Amino acid sequence: MTVRAFPETRDEPRKRLLLIPIILIAGGLGLSMLHPALQFIGAVLALAGALSVFLVGMVFADLWAASRRTRDIIKAREERGISEPERPVEEDPFIDMLAEDDDEV
How many Cβ atoms sit within 10 Å of the Cβ of residue 88? Predict the structure, then answer.
């Protein structure tokens, strides 16, 4: 079993993730301006959007740092001339080893 760096893809994280708080804030503001009965729901959505700025920012920063670290590891391997190890292909990883066979009765 080999240990691989996280994430397994070599792509950078998509910046669409950063739109979540903006959509929540804009939607909350829109609901609060639309009708007086929806002001409370709009305020809650806008507050959730404001709080999710930090959460989404931390997740994006973590994914971005992991992507850079993976890219640097790959570049260092290429400079040293080491190719990426190939994974052994397992036939069926979900074989139930504890299942009773019909032959053993």
Answer: 7
